[in-house]
Amino acid sequence: MSARQTEEAPAAAAHPPLPRLLSAFFYGTCSFLIVLVNKTVLTTYSFPSPMVLGIGQMATTILILYVSKLNRIIHYPDFDKSIPVKLFPLPLLYVGNHISGLSSTSKLSLPMFTVLRKFTIPLTLLLEIIILGKRYSLGIIASVFAIILGAFIAAGSDLSFNLEGYTFVLLNDIFTAANGVYTKQKMDPKALGKYGVLFYNAYFMVIPTMIISFSTGDLQQFLLSCFLGFLLMYSTVLCSHYNSALTTSVVGAIKNISIAYIGMLVGGDYIFSLLNFIGLNICMAGGLRYSFLTLREHSKPKQPTDEENTHLDSKS
């Protein structure tokens, strides 16, 4: 077991089960609601700019956290020159995740958006293995392959194929996986903490995004989606704080199952075909199996490795 793993295990164990469960539930609920609201805003009501929607959500996040700090409800460190170094590359991943997610939501049907978002899971696994040094069982790896197989079948028979939408959603998968893993890595309570990560991510990127949006002539507001955007970002950071990046990804996968089936009825842009529907169901079944195996393994008590036993023997 790596040094990073041994540090992360006690940190996760330090949080009681109830806050971990509630933070995961909160994240899943917010994520579920904002996908439906964003889809309605961007498609049904023809809101013209996903980027402006993202700006509104970032501005809402900054305002709520700043006012909360002024009233001593929360705490995060004041700005200094070391914060950008501590936070990098999270702000870039954050804004990439935000804009690509909104753009793909506007261009794909909800079932296909949901299925293609499941590529976040294998990407998260890969990044956690590389960056956090984690290892996963054969059962989890097999369920991930089922997710990928179902996604390929569904995509291959998608009658409403949109190349731009597919590009955005696959970029969104990459940004989401990287953002989740790096959020967990950067969220040191002694440095920025969960509120500092949340505030400075939005703070550093809202003005560059606003300049880009202003240059395209798209600058507008939509308050409900903005507030839900804050709740989603807050619940994601909260869930990552109390749980692992993988648990956050699993909760998102469970939420996506509900989104996929509801999305066949909401939005009006899903075109039914038998092969596509079969692929969707294979992908969803793989996602459920993956979630069950991951949560079961996560709840098992960790056994000391040979390396740790040797270290304890040398101390004694």
The residue ranges in which pLDDT falls below 50 over 5 or more consecutive positions are 1-13
Which structural class do the helices and strands define?
Answer: mainly alpha
What is the gyration radius calculated from CA atoms?
A: 20 Å
Mean pLDDT comes to 75
Assembly type: single chain
Overall form: globular
Written account of the structure:
By secondary structure, the protein is mostly helical. The protein has 14 helices and no strands. The two termini are 20 Å apart. Residues 1-13 have low confidence and may be disordered.
At a glance:
With 316 residues, this protein is mostly helical. It has helices spanning 3-13, 17-44, 50-70, 82-87, 90-107, 110-117, 120-131, 138-156, 163-186, 193-216, 223-242, 245-263, 274-299, 306-315.
Describe the protein's topology.
Layout: H1 3-13, H2 17-44, H3 50-70, H4 82-87, H5 90-107, H6 110-117, H7 120-131, H8 138-156, H9 163-186, H10 193-216, H11 223-242, H12 245-263, H13 274-299, H14 306-315
Helix pairs in contact: 2-5, 2-11, 2-12, 3-5, 3-10, 3-11, 5-9, 5-10, 6-12, 7-9, 7-12, 8-13, 9-12, 10-11, 12-13
